[in-house]
Request: fold
Amino acid sequence: MSSVQIRDVRKSFGNFEVLHGVSIPIEDGQFVVLVGPSGCGKSTLLRMLAGLENVTSGTISIGDRVVNNVQPKERDIAMVFQNYALYPHMTVAENMGFSLKLRNAGSDEIGKRVKRAAEILALTPLLDRYPRQLSGGQRQRVAMGRAIVRDPQVFLFDEPLSNLDAKLRVAMRTEIKELHQRLKTTTVYVTHDQIEAMTMADKIVVMHDGIVEQMGTPLELYDRPENQFVAGFIGSPAMNFLKGHIRVNGVATFEGPNGVKLPLKNAPAASDGKPVVYGVRPEHFTIADDGADAEIVVVEPTGSETQVFAKLGGEQVVAVFRERHQFNPGDKVKLKPDPGVIHLFDEATGKRL
Amino acid sequence: MAVLAEPIAQPKRSSLWSRAFESRNCLGAMFMVPAVAILVLFLAYPLGLGLYLGLTDTKIGGAGRFIGFGNFVSLAKDSVFWLSVFNTIFYTVTASIVKFAIGLYLALLLNERLPFKSMIRAIVLLPFVVPTVLSAIAFWWIYDSQFSIVSWVLIKAGLLTRYIDFLGDPWNARWSVVIANIWRGVPFVAITLLAGLQTISPSLYEAANLDGATNLQRFRHITLPMLSPIIAVVMTFSVLMTFTDFQLIYTITRGGPINATHLMATLSFQRAITGGNLGEGAAISNAMIPFLVAAILLSFFGLQRSRWQQGGRD
Reply:
């Protein structure tokens, strides 16, 4: 186990810079998730950490060692690939033992460590099978087994669950998290799925267009997003954004599209008339007599909760209720955001106010 | 809704012909007729005729009698025939081994990031594109006893004092035609193996790299096993094509000197067409069949789809 330090790392392909100076400290034993939309540079960063891509500038260290120019095989890291990259011509046991075999470990030693890893991942009955004979989830576990067997300093996961069906993905999520709690190996996990990030991470790093937008614990990011991008990216259904202005005359309010008035707990200093974006999470709407007028568009019950799409000041918003309101499309309701938990962003910069 | 409720117009009870068109089996059979006709006419019939001719003493211009295995009995005592068998095996084995080695090397090279890669690939394909007879004539000049460019260069470089007699000496001639065959056959092996290499996922190499494999270990543990199915196919084809080669030999040496480069195919042609003994020529050709079947069986059983490639859930 080791800490990992990424300091001001840049990456260019030719003249095209994809990472613009990224710094991420990762503590020993931490489970860090790099999350962001496609093309944000998260996978490139992971591959640089693995040594599969060169670092254009900046430094990456594992433990106390700067590894910029260290060969992948000497970095003592294990990676789980998106397509698993299992060797098709080797059995499960051979796949898992391959790295040990290359290091000239004795067959007793290999057998022992493969067996232990197989027990952890419930792969023991499959050890003699070939990858073709396994299901997606089993292949996924073999890929993890291959990583565990080596007992590396750092585990790297590159979107490992994106090829699995929804149900299996949820199960594997728990399995990976449990595995980390058991082994306590420093882990860097790349995904574009914010739910995976929220559920698994000790620390989430939200990336966008080659920069880090925000890092923090899942709930920090959820409760206090630093900017509009993070606010919109984290959380499902996504946060509602309404453009408008702050009005301070007696009580601070937000004046949204078509004159919709929404409550504010307190306005930022000297902000009367300031153009802002008002962000409210779907679950922070309530039905209240003093709410703003809205018209129901679509109702989607999921059982545990009901998602309601409504027009608020001409803009579509989504609200989530745990209560079972009887709504029909076209119904007029009064929606009120909880002013204590709303988010305000500067319209020009997208920064939190 | 009312529209949907109307009964769909039933097609009229149709003729036998149109019903045959609707039946899967009849239609399938009809589509196969042209292919079967072509195969029977141009493949099965000549093959059958060849097999039959081998059992007769047919000469050009004569009908010939059925003589059973007479031709084979006399061939068994024919030293030229046995020389051609030796030549064919020597030619096939040496040329195939070298073609495989050079082809694999070129394929690995072309699979790397190289400058001018597509140009190099085109150049590699060139020998395959040139008509065989043309390239044979070029080799004929290269091997000429008076005008050979190879001899000329070596003499100018001071490495030799007299011209090499490429095609006049039995072993020189054998090696010369083998080299010509290699030159001609390498592109097929190289390009096919390259296609095989490109199907190997780069992430396997990355995984092996992280697992600690050196370049050589990656080749040994990833490339070679993953490529083995393609190798089996390519080498089977290569062996078959080399074994039955005719054009190169016939153009460069016509089987000479003193039958040193006669392959079974060229000997068969010489006896049957030039010599007029169709029956004997056919028998020589038929004698190739056991060798070819053996080569096919070898690759079929020896290099069968390995266990890891076989089905199972996917």
